[in-house]
Write a structure and sequence with these properties.
The complex is a heterodimer. Chain A contains 10 helices and 11 strands. Chain A is α+β, with helices and mostly antiparallel strands. Chain A has 4 domains: 3-143, no CATH class; 159-218; 221-273; 282-416, Heat Shock Protein 90, CATH 3.30.565.10. In chain A, the strands form 3 sheets. Chain A has a 5-stranded mixed beta sheet. A 4-stranded antiparallel beta sheet of chain A has the order 1-4-3-2. In chain A, a hairpin with a 4-residue loop joins strand 2 (80-90) and strand 3. In chain A, helix 6 (222-236) runs antiparallel to helix 7 (243-273), helix 7 (243-273) packs parallel to helix 10 (387-397) and helix 9 (321-337) packs antiparallel against helix 10. Chain B folds into 2 domains: 2-120, Rossmann fold; 126-222, Winged helix-like DNA-binding domain superfamily/Winged helix DNA-binding domain (Arc Repressor Mutant, subunit A, Orthogonal Bundle), CATH 1.10.10. In chain B, 44% of the residues lie in helices and 24% in strands. In chain B, the strands form 4 sheets. A 5-stranded parallel beta sheet of chain B has the order 2-1-3-6-7, sandwiched between helices. In chain B, strands 8-9-10-11 form a 4-stranded antiparallel beta sheet, covered by helices on one side. Classes of the chains: A alpha+beta, B alpha/beta. The interface between A and B is large, with 44 and 40 residues.
């Protein structure tokens, strides 16, 4: 829900409440005014009746539906009058209606009288009717003005805010372009803009630093590693070494090798992530898949595995040939490593997907974690645990979808183009 | 064989020097662009080992100079970068081969000798080790002058052994030489073992001596004096 819609919703709710209460108050006030006016009218009538009696008109002629005059026997101690509400049958509306009644005790030329006058109220229903009509119209006008107003105001006041949102939407940490901040003179927005500017600049800076660090670290690492490895290899030449000592050197060499490969794999991941590879040119991945399958068929044979391939010719993808090579190599390497005796590997390629299946033990890691970095299934120590993470990364930057499945003893990794 | 190693890292220079220098190879070194430049103008080398990134210049510029001054000299590029761009550029400019850091010294040795054979001996060289003869150009191998048939990998393995004779070669190094990065550490043992087994069998069957010594838990050594 948009901010302006939310605000409008609450405005309407509040306005409805105010109009509701206002309606009640108006009703009470109008009723009071009508009562006063009716009482005043009754009092005026009373004065006319008294004047008529004083003028000697017979009381019978003065009386009508609304006026009753009763001569009294006893003298009045005190002149008095009372107002009250009463229900009287109304001829025209044919039902009982609210009437105001004035009962007055008066001495007119030494003759005491009880005079009763009734007058119909301005009807309550009519009051309600009128008040609600007025209020409804007001509410309608108010709503139209509010809607139009908020639409115009939001376009005007919220414009910098909307622009900022659009700018944030467009912004990409990796592109290393600062966030475009629209100009505004609204204090809160200026504050928000300032904060966002600071945050995004910091994020950008940190990201660049991290990127450079990753690149430099894994790159600068290779030379010292080469030196250490060389020293150990020279040491290994020494004829006086015992087998145990040579094995120690061997273990050290293995670890150095692993470290070096780790650095290279991480650099590769960073490079793919930073989109440092060309994706615009069409690459015939059928040829690449064939070549790599051929390379692996010898290794598969050495391991006693059958390698079946069903590669459709002329499959083109927009991918850097080096990345296509790395992706297919990693998939096949993975299929070769996590296999069983007398197992098999299947490579399938068509226009829609590349699919590598292999026999193997059931994975110990949850399926979705296999594409994470350093996730290794079944405790394989010789591997880095980055192969599938690299495949996933390559697929991600090329908008391909990677999925893994294990069924009927077959691991299946497929990349959908 | 006379080689020049251009590398700014002194320790790496001394490693290569120590490993390669023996009667057959004369190593000279240069640790910066200027020094390398001077040496390349003054002396003739069979192979130059070139680091692309030097503190005072690019190794790729030296490559151009070598092509101009000594067109017969082989060039092996070493770089910490494994970017394909560098590799292609180096090879386009006429380098013979490319190695990424860190490299195995035995691998460097094998590559250097391969370049030397291709360049200086026009591939017509014959590697000889006792009764074994390997004709590099036509992939023929004979034991006591009787030809034997080896697979491509067995042939590569034999050449690798002979160029690194009397040296301990661990299985990882051999596996990487034969298959590059495609082989996992754990698998390399089996793969290498099978090829070694077959190669040994073929050599012995042809009347050769078994020169491939297994060093338990380590690797192999191709050597005459069995101990």
């Amino acid at each position: 829900m948009k901010l302006i819609s939310k605000a409008l919703f609450w405005y309407f709710l509040l306005a409805a409440a105010v109009f509701g209460i206002g309606g009640g108050v108006t009703f009470v006030l109008v009723k009071e005014a009508v009562e006063q006016e009716t009482d005043y009218e009754l009092a005026r009538n009373l004065r006319q009746i008294i004047r008529a009696i004083e003028n000697g008109q017979p009381t019978e002629l003065i009386e009508n539906n609304h006026v009753k005059i009763y001569p009294l026997q006893q003298a009045l101690e005190k002149e008095n009058r009372f107002y009250s509400d009463t229900l009287v049958y109304h001829v025209r509306t044919e039902r009982m209606e609210n009437f105001r009644k004035l009962v007055a005790f008066r001495n007119v030329e030494d003759q005491p009288f009880k005079i009763e006058i009734i007058d119909i109220y301005f009807e309550q229903d009519d009051i309600i009717d009128v008040v609600s009509k007025i209020l409804l119209r007001l509410f309608l006008i108010f709503s139209i003005v509010l809607l139009l107003g908020s639409f115009l105001i939001s376009r005007f006041i919220f414009k910098p805010f909307e622009e900022l949102l659009a700018s944030i939407d467009r912004w990409n940490l990796k592109s290393n372009v600062p966030l475009e901040i629209p100009q505004t003179n609204t204090k809160e927005l200026q504050k928000l803009n300032k904060f966002l500017k600071r945050m995004t600049d910091k994020a950008r800076h940190d990201y660049q630093n991290l990127k450079e660090f990753t690149e430099n670290a894994s790159h600068e690492m290779q030379t010292p590693l080469a030196i250490a490895q060389g020293k150990l290899e020279i040491l290994q030449e020494d004829a006086s070494l015992t087998v145990e000592q040579m094995q120690l050197i061997q273990s050290a060499l293995f670890s150095l090798d692993k470290l070096s490969k780790l650095g290279k794999a991480l650099t590769l991941l960073t490079k793919i992530e930073n989109l440092e590879f060309e994706t615009s040119n069409n690459t015939n991945i059928s040829d690449i898949a064939r070549r790599i399958s051929l390379q692996f068929s010898e290794l598969a044979e050495l391991k006693g595995l059958g390698l079946e391939k069903d590669i459709r010719s002329g499959v083109q993808l927009q991918i850097d040939p080096l990345l296509a090579d790395i992706m297919i190599t990693n998939l096949l390497k993975n299929a070769l490593q996590h296999n069983i005796d007398e197992g098999r590997i299947e490579v399938l390629l068509d226009e829609h997907q590349l699919c590598v299946r292999n026999t193997g033990p059931e994975p110990s890691t949850p399926m979705h974690e296999l594409f994470g970095r350093f996730k290794k299934s079944n405790g394989s120590n010789g591997t880095l645990g980055l192969g599938l993470a690299i495949v996933k990364k390559i697929a991600d930057v090329h908008q391909m979808e990677v999925s893994y499945d294990f069924k009927a003893g077959l691991h299946e990794v497929s990349v959908k183009f | 064989m006379k080689i020049l190693i251009v590398e700014d890292e002194k320790e790496l220079l001394s490693n290569v020097n120590a490993y390669l220098s023996n009667g057959e190879i004369v190593c000279e070194s240069a640790s910066n662009f200027r020094e390398a430049h001077d040496k390349l103008i003054a002396f003739v080398y069979d192979v130059v080992v070139l680091d692309i990134m030097l503190p005072d210049g690019s190794g790729l510029d030296l490559l151009g100079l070598i092509k101009e001054e000594q067109p017969d000299t082989g060039i092996l590029i070493i770089s910490a970068k494994n970017a394909l761009d560098d590799k292609l550029e180096g090879l386009n400019l006429g380098a013979d081969d490319y190695l990424t850091k860190p490299f195995h010294l035995s691998e460097l040795n094998a590559r250097l000798r391969a370049i030397y054979r291709r360049r200086k001996l026009q591939g017509k060289s014959v590697l000889t080790f006792e009764e074994i003869q390997v004709h590099i150009d036509n992939h023929e191998v004979s034991v006591n002058e009787v030809p034997i048939v080896l697979t491509v990998k067995e042939h590569e393995l034999l050449v690798f052994f002979i160029t690194n004779k009397n040296r301990v070669l661990n299985k990882q190094v051999i596996a990487e030489h034969l298959w590059g990065d495609n082989v996992d550490y754990l698998d390399s043992f089996d793969f290498v073992y099978q090829h070694i087994k077959n190669l040994r069998k073929k050599l012995v069957a042809a009347g050769g001596e078994n020169y491939i010594q297994t060093i338990y838990g380590l690797g192999y050594k191709f050597s005459k004096n069995l101990s």
